[in-house]
Amino acid sequence: MLRANLQVAIRNLNKYRVHTLINVLGLAMGIAGSIVLGLYVHYHHQFDTYWEGSESAFQLYTHIEREGEARDMVAIPTGLYYDLRDHYPGCEAITVLYREEEGTLGYQHKGTNKSYLVESGMVAIDTSFDQLFPLEYVAGSFEAFQELPNGILLSEPVATALYGSPKAALGKTIWVNQESKTQVAAVFQKPPASVSHSFEVLYSSTLFQNIPYDWVQLRDRFVGMIRLREGEEISGLQIWLDHWKEKLADEIPANYRMMAIPFEEMHFKVGLRGLSTVPVTPWLLNMLGSVAVVLVLLACFNFINLSTALAGERAREVGVRKVLGSTRIQLAVQFLLETACIAGIALLVALFLAEVTLISLEEFMGVSIRISMLATQEIIGLIMVCFAAVTLMAGAYPAWTMTRFTPIKVLQNRTFLLHQGKVHLRRTLVVLQFSTSQVLLMTTLVMIAQVYFLKNRDTGYATESRLQLVLPDVDSNKSKYLRDEVSALAGVRDASLSTQSAAASGSSSIYIWVNNAVRRVNYLMWDEHYQELFDIDLLAGTPLSAKDSISKVLVNESFVTQHGFETPQAALGYRFKIPSLQDSLTMEVRGVVEDFQVNSSHTQIPPSFMFYYQDGFYALSVHLNDSDHETTLTQLEKVWQSIYPGFLFDFTWTEDALDAFYEKETQLSLLFLYFSSLAILIGCLGLYGLAHFMVSRKMKEVGVRKVLGANVFNILWLFSKEYIRLIIIGFLLAVPVGVYLVDEWLANFAYRITLHGGYFAAGLLIALLVALLAVGYQSVHAAQTNPIKSLRNE
User: Fold this and answer.
1) 503-512 CB burial, b ≥16 within 10 A, e <16
2) Which of 77-81, 757-761, 790-794 has the highest mean pLDDT?
3) If residue 774 lies in a helix (H) or strand (E), which one and from where to where?
């Protein structure tokens, strides 16, 4: 019986080739898009589950509230580490990391001194590290590391890059940042990308031998984690942390609160600073998950539309089979089997399309995801359930509709017309398809516009032909000599030293004392060249010079506004105190500069002051001439190596550093562009199929109209007017949903575009144009057909 049904199904699929092809393509694209998005969401949801025992591990962090603003940092006071270790009974293990992140490894290989740049994942650790982060070792062991006073652990890729193989690296001597001599104790398997703390090089440090007690200062790189004993809850830990702060109320700032978050949740703690990866908002993942479901539903709507449209063509087949004794159940099984065949073929095509898509999206998504991630028992089971669900969703209604046909009615008419209710259903499904597609399209257009705005808005300083380097140390003699030597190069216009580059991921802040009140402001130390190099406008006063003392400062417009001055000139000569510097040092404003965006536009430009300081510079900025950058960079590297031998010359263009702020937004906008286009395409495939059947059934009407003088435009309007009306209805339903979604997303930015009707009208126009192309092809083809062919049998 099954074999016979299968043969009939294959024969019918072959008979209605266009219907079959459109349904396979529609379902395949919908399922492929759903798989890609599903894998992306799954990738983020299994973050930090790599670590064994992650369910009892917690990240410690500090919640800070200042002037109505809240910040979360993984940094903790060093005193908390000691007190948790020694006095909290629920503590099974605690460890601290000191994240250097980047640095150099000096080593000798085959008699040659070499240097290796570690761009991220360079971390100093203590001997309890493995109790929170149990790594898998391919050579050596953590016990060997614990026994060495100066041990170092390398990831497998780093060990292979240095010595050719993990085993060859064991016992070798490595100089960390050209200062600390270490010995390779073990090589570990590099953790996957789906961890919040990435590791490439782990080394022991004297930093942990005498950690000072400190309850106030937060070192961004000092990170603590704790594992709780079995039966302990995070609520008990939080009570202990709050009680600990109360006992030390005189020592700990009132706006600090020490908190903990489970390992498996920290990837979703938006705004948590200090992790190796940027946390993602659950709202975004829920949105992408919803899009995945929508794509499958759109494909199923297509199938239902086309199948019910084809029902009239297959009515006589149903009538004949009923006369010959087939029951409704047998017919339903036959139609569902045909649907299952289409869904099965579509699933195979979808897997191929998904793999190709994942490979093409890998670079801009920044993650490596493959179809092989589906090869787990749970996922395979889920796919089978989804396959059955798609088969039922797409096939159940058409099967129910066609099995209800009465033989006597369908056999006495050459052309069987569907009940008006079925037509209403098809119209409803078209409206749902295009309203959903237009929501995605509107959202995409707004995202693209916002990203363009962020990348092109005036930052307050020039970026063209500017580059920046991070200095290996803060030796002022070396840094000034480097600046002077670089400035002397023919291809260099100017060079400047500062505490941070123009486009930086972080910032430095300090409390100042003003009118018996404490305020927090940002500060930046730069030399006399910085302002001119970046072309920062001076609004009032005079720029800094090398002769200035630390007490002479420039302030930005936000500082002027915060302190109540109506004009920049009014702020000149203004004085404020810094309690933490040189016994409450008094600073005097000597100039006001235009606001400039050092950090991301997600946050407003903070009140800031700038001053000249002899020491403590961490960054070198260089302005090159507009031509022959390659030669100048070669010369610059030679100067670098002469002053910092063994440290790799690694620079960043300022424009690239700014673009990096909005990498996630760029990825998201491209992701939505891809899948909104896919949704539109799926919808238009359905329209193409519906138009195909409509044209085939109205060929005689078209012939009569042409004989009576109708032109191509009249025929095009005949077939298109209903779909235009349905798309406009879908647009009206989509607008309020689209406005809500994009407004929620734009709320994450301090500087944002203004929403206007143009974005939504553009979405409608695109949907109409694509739909007209789909319907228009069939309509024009019908209009150009000789009416003699369609009327010759009348």
Assistant:
1) bbeeeeeeeb
2) 757-761
3) helix 757-784
Q: How many CA atoms lie within 13 A of 436 on its CB side?
A: 26
SS3 for 2? helix
**CB contact set of 498 (below 8 Å; sequence gap of 6+):** 524, 525, 526, 527, 530, 617, 618, 619, 621
How many residues are listed for the chain in this entry? 794
Q: By C-alpha distance, which of 209, 237, 213 is closest to 225?
A: 237
CA distance 564 to 499: 28
In 3D space, the residue among 180, 199, 203 whose CA is nearest the CA of residue 189 turns out to be 199
The string of DSSP codes covering 150-161 is: TEEEEEHHHHHH
CA proximity to 771, closest of 669, 682, 698: 682
Provide φ and ψ at 254, rounded to 5°. Answer: -65, -25
d(CA 782, CA 702): 7
In this structure, what token pair is assigned to residue 494?
């100017």
Angle at 181 between CA 179 and CA 185, to 5 degrees: 140
Whether the per-residue pLDDT at 627 is higher than 70: the answer is yes
Name the residue type at position 261.
I
Report the 3 state secondary structure along 23-35.
Answer: HHHHHHHHHHHHH
Best CA proximity match to 211, nearest among 81, 40, 63, 373 = 81
Please spell the DSSP secondary structure of 218-275, one letter per residue: --TTEEEEEEEPTT--HHHHHHHHHHHHHHTTTTS-TTEEEEEEEGGGGGG-TTEET-
The beta strand positions in 126-179, using DSSP E, are 137-140, 151-155, 173-176
Please calculate the CA angle 533-538-542 and round it to the nearest 5 degrees: 95
Instruction: Characterize the bridge pairing of strands 173-176 and 552-556.
Output: unpaired
pLDDT value of position 114: 82
**775 burial via Cβ count (<10 Å: 0-12, 13-18, 19+):** buried
Separation CA 508–CA 80 (nearest Å) = 23
Greater confidence, 588 or 112? 588
CA distance 678 to 676: 5
- The answer to whether 157 and 125 have CB atoms below 8 angstroms apart is no
pLDDT-wise least confident of 4-13, 538-547, 637-646, 701-710: 4-13
Question: For position 301, what pLDDT does the model report?
Answer: 81
603 neighbors 750 (Cβ within 8 angstroms)? yes
Helix (H), strand (E) at residue 124: strand 112-125
C-alpha–C-alpha distance, residues 566 and 2, integer Å: 85
Mean pLDDT of 314-321: 67
Please give the helix or strand (H or E) that residue 654 lies within, else none.
Answer: helix 654-660
- Higher per-residue confidence, 368 vs 445: 445
- Whole-angstrom distance, CA of residue 306 vs CA of residue 576: 74
d(CA 309, CA 314): 10
Which residues have a Cβ under 8 Å from the Cβ of 348 and sit 6 or more positions away? none
Give the DSSP H/E element, type plus range, for residue 69: strand 69-73
Highest mean pLDDT among 338-347, 418-427, 517-526: 338-347
Query: What does the pLDDT average to over 540-563?
Result: 86
Task: For residue 693, count other CB atoms closer than 10 A to its CB.
Answer: 19
The reported pLDDT for the residue numbered 418 is 47
Give the pLDDT confidence score for residue 417 in this predicted structure: 47
| Integer Cα distance of 84 and 232 in angstroms | 14
Closest CA to 592 of 563, 621, 613: 563
Which tokens hold the place of 753?
Answer: 């575009």
Tell me how far apart the terminal alpha carbons of the chain are, to the nearest angstrom: 42
**pLDDT for the residue numbered 1:** 60
- Taking only the tens place, the pLDDT of each residue in 199-245 is 999 998 665 555 666 655 666 678 899 999 988 899 999 999 999 88
